[in-house]
Amino acid sequence: MNKDEIVVENRDMDLGSPDMRRELEEYSAAKLRKAEKREEEYLNRPGLTDKILDGAVKVKALARRAKNAVLAKKHQSENQH
Question: Given this model, what pLDDT does residue 18 score?
Fold first, then answer.
């Protein structure tokens, strides 16, 4: 646990002064904004979407090739009999 991290186990307890409650709420809101910003930066990285789409196209192509290979082998074995 970080030394700056605050853990509240009982949310119904009196947190002290209204200033303390406000500080805790601001801290929680800032932490949430920071997490949302990290997520947005990750999702908006240049090329990330392209890499995902390229991967999907490659998987689809491999699946098609495998299917065609199985069908060709099946067709070949049927012609031999």
Answer: 82
